[in-house]
Each structure stands twice: as structure tokens, then as C-alpha cells.
Amino acid sequence: xxxxxxxxxxxxxxxxxxxxxxxxxxxxxxxxxxxxxxxxxxxxxxxxxxxxxxxxxxxxxxxxxxxxxxxxxxxxxxxxxxxxxxxxxxxxxxxxxxxxxxx
Amino acid sequence: xxxxxxxxxxxxxxxxxxxxxxxxxxxxxxxxxxxxxxxxxxxxxxxxxxxxxxxxxxxxxxxxxxxxxxxxxxxxxxxxxxxxxxxxxxxxxxxxxxxxxxx
DNA sequence: TAAACATATTGATGAACATCTATATTATCG
DNA sequence: CGATAATATAGATGTTCATCAATATGTTTA
Lengths: 103, 103
Known about the structure:
Two copies of one chain form a homodimer. Chain A is α+β, with helices and mostly antiparallel strands. Chain A has one domain (5-91): Orthogonal Bundle (Arc Repressor Mutant, subunit A). Chain A contains five helices and three strands. Chain A has helices at 5-14, 18-30, 35-41, 46-58, 77-91; strands spanning 33-34, 62-67, 70-75. Chain A has a three-stranded antiparallel beta sheet with strand order 1-3-2. In chain A, a hairpin with a 2-residue loop joins strand 2 and strand 3. In chain A, helix 3 packs across helix 4 (46-58). Chain A is elongated and about 45 Å long. The structure holds a DNA duplex (30 and 30 nucleotides).
């Protein structure tokens, strides 16, 4: 999967904040959570959680699923993998594994 | 190689800025550059380049080598690899490849 | 030693941002 | 319908930060 430059930039920024990384990690571990559940894990206000989730969603590293009054979020592994790959590519960390063959 | 939490945080922040990523990428491509050479590639002032290189060095993603009046910088691949691994671990991107065996 | 050069530091400025309180919006339930 | 609950938005505030001009520090060379 190919990431637009704009998305790559946005993801880098999204991952820069420790609180946002913690939220993302929690989502990665639990699979799927709603806003309130996420908030319960951390000592920040509800609007702050909402804001962070929005940032993560805008960067497409999480996906939002509205179910009635609730709003579930889950990690987008495809985007995260693409981000890590692109990061490795840019940093020259994948020279040896350039085109891995599966036989 | 194990990254201290503090280092992981600092690297995430260091990678958040596009200008710093561009500098790092340039260093990854060319291997080794001094301050002036780095500056020549971008349209920013000398103090700004110096500042960014310092941030990258503080995060240990580049290493500094003073040679007389010049100052050479090169990428620290070990730290960058460790960062990417830790990132993958936290984001749950390595479930399948947990302990890759080389036979 | 004086001038020229490479890099670092200082201090200032404007923008971005994390966070909060207050409030709005939308959905459920009695 | 009215109350309660979940999430979002608006606006404010303090902090962090990217950047620059000016200057300092350290190094080479004429």
C-alpha cells in the first residue's frame, strides 16, 4: 500500500505525541474501543480524548465506526504497516530486504 | 538493542518535523555530511540546520564527529532500527514475525 | 597575529498544539 | 416528550517549537 506524502507527514505528527501513542497502543492491544473506554484508561478530559482520536482518524491510523450513540475505534494495520515500510525506506533501513521473494 | 523510553519519545518527536526528516533522509542517502553540506541542500538558515542536527544527535539517530573546524554527521542505523522495531512492537505489527529464525 | 571560515548559542517571534471548561449535537430510555 | 448519556465542537490558555538575525566560539590559513 502506498502512502501519500501528506498522509506520511500527518502520521509522523500523530505519532509524536506520547498521549496519542498511548491511546493508539491501547487500541492495538484491545482491538476495538469506544471513546469512553479509551478515556477510562487515561487521566485526560473527554474532549482531549475526542481530539486525539480525531487526529488519529484523520491520519488514517485508526478507523471510526459509529454505532448508534457510541463510536468505536480500531487500528488500521494496513496504514500503520505502510507507514513503517515507508519510514524504513526513507531511512535506508531496508537495503538488504529490498524485494523479498516468497517462494 | 533496547531503547530507553526517553529516547523513544525523543526520536518520535525528532521524526515529526518534515525538515528534520528531510535532513535525516539526506544523511541516510549520502552517508556522511558536514553542517554546511547539509545546509546547502535546503533553504533554511545555518542556525536552523545546526539546531536540527543537534536535535537528531540528542535523539541519537545521528552521530557527530568533530574533525577540526568541521563537524561530520552520519546516521546511527542501530538506533533507527531499534526505534522501528519498538514502534512495530507497540503498534502490534509484529505478531506473526515475533521471533524470526534464521537457519 | 589577523582575517576568514565553520559551527554553536542566544534571544526574539510567530505558529502549532495539548489541554481544559463550557456548550452543542445526537442518540437512547423511561 | 424529557432526562440522561456519548461524543463533538468552540473558544481560551499556556507551552512547545521552528525559524531567524545577531553574536559568540573555535579553527585554519595567509
